[in-house]
Structure to design on (1347 residues):
């Protein structure tokens, strides 16, 4: 992960997070995880004074920050009766402050997927990513097994924060701050921070090994990935699991790498004449998150549906997350090990449930 | 960056062409085609207030930018499309997809097997091969349900004088013009006539294409010399929205034409897709 | 463009999942599930996920409309309210308070509903107040009142996870209460046994240990049959019966008649399966019984509920963790609408409207005389309208033209009224028939409370402003009360004031307040001195009526059975992706894409016999009307049974349904009637039965 000299050049020490946060808040709209009285954690836009920021493993919000980049709902273009006109999103610079490794890995994945999407990129170029290393495993997470954490992978954030636990007599500062990109470096120049040294970087690595060792070894996940890629899972297993798929779309909505969408049109004014005289028809076309688990997702106008059966759709979702076929393009699996699908699936066919069942079935 | 926003085209000509099928001629309004359009590529039509759908170029744009499409009425959008007249304006995005491998058929014997409206996606290929005197020989085997369902009447008349054209009909065949039955039932004799083609291009309902491919392989053709053009629900045309997936490929980008062995390899990547293939039914 | 989030409760079914509303620019752009919510725990169903579409600005009514010469014209609130007040006063003075009424919304808040019944009783001086529980769980309210003294779900949702046997009768929870359905499937994975009693092969039936696929309308025979077997084997809970029930001997003697062979013949269920089910349920440590419309929507609905209660009481499967009699309330606040007294015979907290003391109590509290005479149900109002005796109706958030039985009669009733006022989010079929349409605020645009099926009163929060001139239901009633000469009566400024007024007049809610609801993720009633923090499990030591009553009931045939002219059984159902009349869910392009706008489920054998191809158009007709739609060949139904969802105004199944009634509750027999099927010519598309936009009731 670290690559020696370059990283050392751009590594600093930070006594107090508020210094960094307040500085960034001067040029960016602050977005960070907030917890409410019920303990619910959400990515929240802060306007003005912010609460105590929440970081790290204990606070993986159920909804990832995906929506800040790939919007849940946004306008694409409009039609004024004669021509179509692109509507790009109106953006202000935002800093996503304290994004965990899994979500950053997912953002990097989507950066690649949406590389030529003007809407995504318009938002993306106005976002500063401040990542944070996790200090212990979260409840459903297995990021280490899919190379998506617990420490932030290099170049998936502009700035990375890592808490260095104080050790004995050494006067080590609380936070290591690494600028991974030009943008990140520029954003903290004015702070004139004290530089970190080799010792700090070594400590970070030591802490990484410690965190990794605390993860439960979900060996069934690695086994199941192998069975999946060997195509050795019997179809009746997919049929058994897919009975429980309600097509609620929870998994695809919460999965930080899912990117499928649908477009639909809003007619702004009821046409008084027929469509032939399209001058009076004004419409706006929007896109919204879609889900391949819906039966209608692949159904054609003729009625032909290549994914008619739930077993096909459920299997294909896991293929998209764990198949080696996607490695040439993305250099990694579609799954970042955040475990959100397990939490949100009403049918008990999230990642742990499915992989456990696959391992159980194929092992025997 | 990708342009998801449609451009505008105008209808220049319309006439009926087969059961529930219509032949359209379009013209760009306010733009010129800035990319060459490949044989077998497709475009997306947008009807404001109604929806959008993919259609194949039945002829590639000429000097004026005009191009044709054969459109069949299957649902809500095409029904509305059929109410439009000359002069009406629509949205257009394209060209999309990878076309037919026309480069590969140089000096080869080509057999084209089309079913129903599957004739439209191969029309530009047939014209190209004829006009460029590209291949050693071109044969067309075209199957339809009945005579009313046959499409591209004018084009077939034109082709009949240049290439050997076999037609089959499920209902009403058996005369001297058309054979009776399904195209697959006549493949063997067509193969003989064409002196064992080197390459087969097929287009029609998915199950038909697979049946044709299997029959061709039985007749000694390699799967690497069989090409097909598949249909999928499409929205963006640029491999983003995800609707047209075939395993890890997007039909609007890597397809809609696929080499048979590659397509089957994709389908076989997931057991559930491998098991459930579609029904053989003309559109 | 910054995003704000507000926590609320899902507006669809009775589970009451927590939902986060994300707003930007005064628009709800998306929703998020809530991890810490005790019931939903980070989950939502397809409907919940698509909430934002249902209340989007684009489809909404934003201004009051008045019909003039068959067309709607925009008017001001003042004009509309003045007109309504004038007309209502006229009807009351000329024809008496019996000629006017209110139908409140089971999807509006408790505060809205409290206001509605107060308006009816204190302003209009009528007990003609009702809502859609009439056609869904009114038999639960009536039946369980008789047997236990209280009609609400006895246990809590999380008792599903504490049961070793789960029995689901006449309900399809994975589709309609999806989070509960999911918990049932999860319990099964953890080792619980699942029994499903349903004429259709539902998703739960597919995973169940036992699916009793009974003939439609034979619930009592089956339940009495189970009791017959239980008593014969001495599997009943004698200790519980002795300590907590009355009427055992009579019941035992009564069900002796329902021997296995007879019951197998009536129900079509194999004797061996009946025995297995009887054993599983009675011998379970804790058996959780849930039921739905497949029990209630019959002419014997109330008795069906009593039969269910007999089974649970005889086996002692009530009053403890993991057990209970659990009617699954369909709407996000139908429990609340009942609790708030939007029923002709009860005031809030089920205080009897015919009881003079109750009337005095409310007259005192409200400083005005309340209604004197018994009130009409919604069906009664419709009936009286058709006979010219009922003149004016306010309907809040309901679409009876699509959801009530025998649509032709419903439409006749509405046309016959002199004043029909519909308060709605969007232009529904019923709204098209109105004289005046008033724009309402949605659940995301107001603060208030919903009560879910497990009696949990939860707060909803305002996330965005109402569009245009839309107003909250209680605000509208407050203004109307002023117009009608009672300015002080309903002069509330906040919903909290309404809630506090209500808690002071009831016992079950007396311990509740907004701050307490906020602190506790809601509170389950009763919440009073005895249960200061609410009550998870009712009837743990005693029933409200003392001892549970075992009441003998008999199998009765359904009002209509198939015959030569109408040879098919017909039943109604719901799809996972749509809700009620579809006014909200059909705004989502994703949900609308999932299903065709009208479908009829038919068994493959029947399709074959009739020569029908997949998705072919058909005309389906009953003695009341006919509908054109497309078939969906499915083994979900059995031969001879057709099944149709009621969500689609283009193919409203209620053109066919029977409004023959359960005598004690006037519940119509929505679940069954007789129909015939005629194929449409092969390429002919079905004609739509939706009303024209012009707003005049043009029925086909």
């Amino acid at each position: 992960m670290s690559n020696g000299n370059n990283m050392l050049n751009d590594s600093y020490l930070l006594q107090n997070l508020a210094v960094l946060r307040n500085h960034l808040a001067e040029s960016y709209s602050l977005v960070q995880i907030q917890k409410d009285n019920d303990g619910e954690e959400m990515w929240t836009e802060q306007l003005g004074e912010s609460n105590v920021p929440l970081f790290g493993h204990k606070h993986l919000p159920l909804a990832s920050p995906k929506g800040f980049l790939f919007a849940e709902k946004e306008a694409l273009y409009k039609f004024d009766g004669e021509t179509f006109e692109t509507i790009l999103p109106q953006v202000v610079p935002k800093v996503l402050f304290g994004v965990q490794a899994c979500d950053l890995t997912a953002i990097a994945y989507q950066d690649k997927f949406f590389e030529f999407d003007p809407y995504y990129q318009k938002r993306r170029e106005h976002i500063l990513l401040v990542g944070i290393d996790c200090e212990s495993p979260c409840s459903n997470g297995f990021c280490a097994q899919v190379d998506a954490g617990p420490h932030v992978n290099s170049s998936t954030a502009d700035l990375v924060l890592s808490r260095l636990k104080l050790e004995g007599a050494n006067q080590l500062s609380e936070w290591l701050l690494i600028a991974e990109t030009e943008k990140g470096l520029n954003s903290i120049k004015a702070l004139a921070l004290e530089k970190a040294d080799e010792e700090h970087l070594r400590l970070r690595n030591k802490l990484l090994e410690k965190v990794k060792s605390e993860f439960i070894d979900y060996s069934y996940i690695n086994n199941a990935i192998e069975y999946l890629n060997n195509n050795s899972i019997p179809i009746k297993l997919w049929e058994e699991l897919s009975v429980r798929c309600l097509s609620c779309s929870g998994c695809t909505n919460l999965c930080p790498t899912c990117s499928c969408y649908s477009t639909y049109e809003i007619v702004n004014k009821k046409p008084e004449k027929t469509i032939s005289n399209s001058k009076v028809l004004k419409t706006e076309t929007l896109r919204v998150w879609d889900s391949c688990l819906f039966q209608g997702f692949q159904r054609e106008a003729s009625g032909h549906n290549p994914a008619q059966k739930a077993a096909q759709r459920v299997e294909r979702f896991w293929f998209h997350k764990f198949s080696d076929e996607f490695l040439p393009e993305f250099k990694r699996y579609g799954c970042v090990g955040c475990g959100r699908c397990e939490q949100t699936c009403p049918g008990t066919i999230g990642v742990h449930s499915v992989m456990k069942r696959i391992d159980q079935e194929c092992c025997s | 960056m990708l342009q998801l926003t449609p451009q505008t085209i105008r209808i220049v000509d319309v006439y009926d062409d087969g059961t529930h099928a219509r032949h359209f001629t379009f013209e760009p309004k306010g733009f010129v085609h800035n990319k060459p359009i490949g044989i077998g590529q497709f475009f997306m039509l947008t009807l404001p207030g109604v929806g959008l759908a993919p259609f194949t170029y039945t002829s590639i744009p000429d000097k004026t930018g005009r191009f044709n499409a054969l459109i069949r009425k299957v649902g809500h959008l095409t029904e509305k499309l059929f109410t439009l007249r000359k002069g009406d304006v629509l949205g257009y995005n394209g060209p999309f997809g990878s076309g037919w491998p026309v480069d590969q058929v140089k000096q080869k014997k080509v057999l084209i097997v089309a079913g129903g409206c599957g004739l439209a996606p191969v029309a530009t290929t047939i014209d190209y091969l004829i006009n460029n005197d590209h291949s050693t020989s071109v044969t067309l085997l075209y199957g339809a349900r009945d005579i009313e369902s046959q499409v591209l009447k004018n084009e077939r008349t034109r082709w009949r004088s240049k290439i050997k054209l076999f037609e089959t009909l499920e209902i009403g065949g058996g005369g001297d013009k058309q054979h009776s039955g399904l195209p697959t039932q006549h493949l063997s004799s067509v193969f003989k006539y064409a002196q064992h083609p080197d390459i087969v291009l097929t287009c029609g309902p998915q199950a038909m294409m697979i049946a044709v491919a299997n029959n061709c392989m039985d007749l000694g053709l390699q799967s690497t010399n069989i090409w097909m053009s598949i249909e999928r629900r499409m929205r963006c045309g640029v491999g983003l929205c995800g609707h047209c997936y075939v395993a890890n490929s997007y039909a609007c980008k890597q397809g809609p034409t696929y080499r048979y062995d590659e397509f089957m390899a994709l389908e076989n990547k997931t057991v559930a897709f491998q098991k459930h293939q579609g029904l053989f039914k003309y559109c | 463009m910054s995003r704000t989030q507000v926590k609320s409760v899902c507006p669809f079914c009775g589970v009451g999942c927590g939902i986060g509303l994300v707003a930007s620019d005064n628009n709800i752009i998306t929703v998020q599930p809530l991890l810490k919510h005790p019931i939903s725990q980070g989950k939502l169903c397809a409907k919940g996920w698509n909430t934002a579409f249902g209340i989007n600005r684009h489809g909404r009514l934003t201004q009051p409309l008045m019909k003039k010469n068959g067309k709607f014209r925009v008017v001001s609130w003042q004009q509309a309210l003045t007109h309504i007040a004038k007309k209502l006063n006229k009807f009351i003075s000329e024809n008496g308070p019996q000629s006017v009424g209110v139908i409140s919304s089971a999807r509006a808040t408790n505060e809205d509903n409290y206001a509605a019944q107060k308006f009816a009783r204190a302003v209009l001086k009528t007990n003609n107040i009702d809502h859609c529980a009439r056609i869904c769980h009114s038999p639960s309210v009536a039946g369980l009142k008789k047997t236990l003294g209280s009609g609400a779900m006895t246990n809590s949702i999380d008792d599903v996870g504490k049961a070793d046997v789960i029995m689901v009768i006449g309900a399809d929870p994975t589709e309609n209460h999806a989070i509960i359905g999911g918990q049932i499937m999860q319990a099964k994975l953890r080792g619980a046994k699942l029994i499903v009693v349903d004429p259709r092969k539902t998703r739960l039936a597919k995973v169940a240990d036992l699916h009793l696929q009974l003939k439609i309308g034979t619930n009592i025979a089956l339940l009495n049959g189970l009791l017959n077997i239980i008593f014969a084997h001495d599997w009943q809970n004698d200790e519980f019966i002795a300590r907590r029930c009355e009427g055992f001997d009579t019941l035992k003697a009564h069900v002796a008649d329902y021997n296995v062979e007879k019951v197998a013949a009536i129900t079509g269920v194999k004797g061996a399966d009946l025995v297995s089910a009887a054993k599983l349920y009675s011998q379970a440590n804790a058996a959780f019984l849930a039921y739905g419309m497949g029990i209630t929507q019959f002419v014997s609905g109330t008795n069906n509920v009593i039969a269910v209660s007999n089974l649970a009481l005889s086996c002692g499967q009530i009053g403890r963790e993991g057990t209970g009699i659990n009617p699954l309330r369909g709407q996000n606040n139908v429990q609340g609408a009942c609790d708030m007294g939007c029923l002709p015979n009860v005031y809030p907290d089920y205080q009897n409207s015919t009881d003079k003391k109750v009337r005095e109590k409310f007259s005192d509290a409200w400083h005005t005389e309340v209604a004197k005479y018994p009130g009409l149900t919604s069906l009664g109002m419709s009936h009286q309208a058709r006979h010219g005796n009922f003149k004016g109706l306010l309907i809040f958030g309901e679409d009876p033209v699509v959801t009530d039985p025998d649509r032709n009669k419903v439409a006749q009733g509405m046309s016959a009224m002199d004043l029909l006022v519909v308060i709605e989010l969007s232009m529904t079929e019923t709204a098209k028939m109105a004289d005046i349409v008033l724009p309402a605020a949605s659940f995301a645009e107001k603060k208030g409370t919903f009560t879910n099926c497990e009696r949990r009163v939860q707060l909803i929060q305002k996330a965005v402003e109402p569009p245009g001139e839309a107003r909250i239901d209680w605000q509208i009633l407050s203004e109307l009360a002023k117009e009608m000469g009672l300015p002080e009566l309903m002069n509330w400024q906040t919903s909290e004031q309404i809630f506090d007024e209500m808690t002071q007049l009831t016992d079950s809610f007396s311990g509740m307040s907004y701050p307490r609801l906020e602190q506790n993720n809601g509170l389950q009633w009763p919440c009073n001195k005895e249960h200061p923090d609410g009550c998870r499990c009712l009837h743990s030591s005693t029933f409200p009526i003392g001892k549970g009553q075992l009441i003998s009931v008999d199998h009765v045939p359904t009002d209509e059975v198939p015959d030569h002219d109408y040879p098919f059984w017909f039943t109604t159902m719901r799809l996972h992706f749509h809700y009620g009349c579809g006014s909200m869910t059909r705004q989502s392009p994703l949900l609308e894409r999932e299903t065709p706008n009208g479908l009829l489920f038919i068994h493959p054998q029947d399709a074959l016999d009739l020569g029908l191809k997949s998705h072919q158009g058909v005309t389906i007709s009953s003695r009341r009307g006919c509908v054109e739609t497309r078939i969906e060949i499915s083994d979900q139904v059995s031969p001879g049974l057709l099944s149709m969802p009621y969500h689609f105004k283009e193919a409203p199944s209620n053109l066919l349904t029977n409004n023959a009634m359960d005598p004690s509750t006037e519940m119509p027999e929505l679940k069954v009637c007789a129909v015939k099927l005629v194929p449409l010519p092969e390429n002919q598309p079905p004609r739509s039965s939706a009303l024209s936009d012009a707003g005049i009731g043009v029925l086909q």
Notes: Residues 46 and 119 of chain A are 23 Å apart (CA to CA). Chain A has two domains: 4-62+90-215, 220-257+308-363. Residues 220-257+308-363 of chain A form one domain.
